[in-house]
Amino acid sequence: MNFGQHIKNLRLEASLTQTQLAAKIGITKSVLSYYELHDHFPPAAVLIKLATIFHVSTDHLLGITPGKKPDVSSLTASKDSAAAHINNLFSQIQQPYCKLQQFPLR
Q: Which end of the chain is more exposed for a tag (fewer CB within 10 A), N or C?
């Protein structure tokens, strides 16, 4: 399965229209359609937003690893702070990748 088909499958699995998903990640519906119909990759910042929305890793989106992030919706209150700490760590890791977009490879 190519990248575009993978994004489309995740979008449909989440019961989102192209318009809804595009609004969530800050792009137009036509740009999202382009990603889904062609095997082109979005900028790193968009890739990270997609991974966050679909609760998967960027590696999963790119087809490098098959696993999804675990569903943490059923955590108890005592475990919630641990999950928040882990989420904070993920955010800190993602920030350098967002900055990479400022210096595209040619």
A: C
83, 72 in Cβ contact below 8 A?
yes
List the one residue out of 34, 28, 27, 46 whose CA is nearest residue 8: 34
Grouping H, G, I as helix, E, B as strand and the rest as coil, residue 68 is: strand
> Of 21-25, 68-72, 97-101, which gets the smallest average pLDDT?
97-101
Q: Distance (Å, rounded) from C-alpha 103 to C-alpha 29?
A: 26
Burial annotation 34-50 (CB, 10 A radius, 16+ → b, else e): ebbeeeeebebbbbbbb
Computed over every residue of the chain, the mean pLDDT equals 79
- For residue 22, the model assigns a pLDDT of 96
pTM higher than 0.70 for the full model?
Answer: no
- Give yes or no for a contact between 44 and 100, defined as CB atoms under 8 angstroms apart: yes
